[in-house]
Amino acid sequence: MDEFLLTQVINYGAPLLGIIVFVGGLGVPLPCTVIVIAAGAFARQDILSWEVAALISIVSVVIGDSISYSFGYYSRDKVLSRFSSSPQWAKAEESFRKWGPLSIFFSRFLVTAIALPVNLLSGTTGFPFRKFFVYDLFGEIVWIFGYGGLGYLFGSQWELVSEFMGNFGGAVLGAIIFIFGIKQVWNWQEKKKMLSM
């Protein structure tokens, strides 16, 4: 799949790159980060114009993210009718109000595996779209220029960079899950102590 998409980006240029990242913003599991890094390398080789590729990619991915936000927003009533009475939902909403901006920003480029759930949760919890848009835009700019810039910088070695960044993103996600698990165990222990008193 990667090689096929990369060949098509070489053949059709920035418009296809924009379509790929747009579809990725909708939550379709495509190797978007690999393609952005490769696009940076292609720009260095003058296969793509980096200005046009960057602009089209940023606009496309932000539109995709905004549509996935709207999926969450328009399913809000159904979700609330089912889950709003549960204490877990109240905690999730409270937590998202506190950490939502950071989770939107960092999930664009650091932990991309949770980008779609964050988009949906942003809409479902009623997180203001304007704020979502701003954090999303800045995060996607970091993603396009950061990862595309690495591809440009390393040129023909872009595949090594892609592999490293994939491993790094996985390690960050693993660390987040581990910390969340420790916190859950801690909360469970605290509740147990309170009940035994």
Provide keyphrases for this structure:
9 helices; single chain; mainly alpha; 0% strand; 197 residues
Molecular structure report:
The protein has 197 residues and is mainly α. It has one domain (2-196). The protein is built from nine helices and no strands. The protein has helices at 2-12, 14-25, 32-44, 50-74, 76-83, 87-107, 115-124, 129-154, 158-196. Helix 6 (87-107) crosses helix 7. The radius of gyration is 19 Å and the shape is elongated. The mean pLDDT is 83.
Number of helices: 9
Instruction: Let me know the number of strands.
Output: 0
Taking pLDDT < 50 over at least 5 consecutive residues as the criterion, the unreliable ranges are: none
How is the biggest beta sheet arranged? none
Helix/sheet category: mainly alpha
What is the share of helical residues? over 70%
H-E order = HHHHHHHHH
* Straight-line N-to-C gap: 58 Å
Question: What's the helix and strand layout?
Answer:
Layout (H helix, E strand, L loop, with lengths): L1 H11 L1 H12 L6 H13 L5 H25 L1 H8 L3 H21 L7 H10 L4 H26 L3 H39 L1
Helix pairs in contact: 1-3, 2-3, 2-4, 3-8, 3-9, 4-7, 4-8, 6-7, 6-8, 8-9
Question: How do you describe this structure in short?
Answer:
With 197 residues, the protein is mainly α. The longest helix has 39 residues.
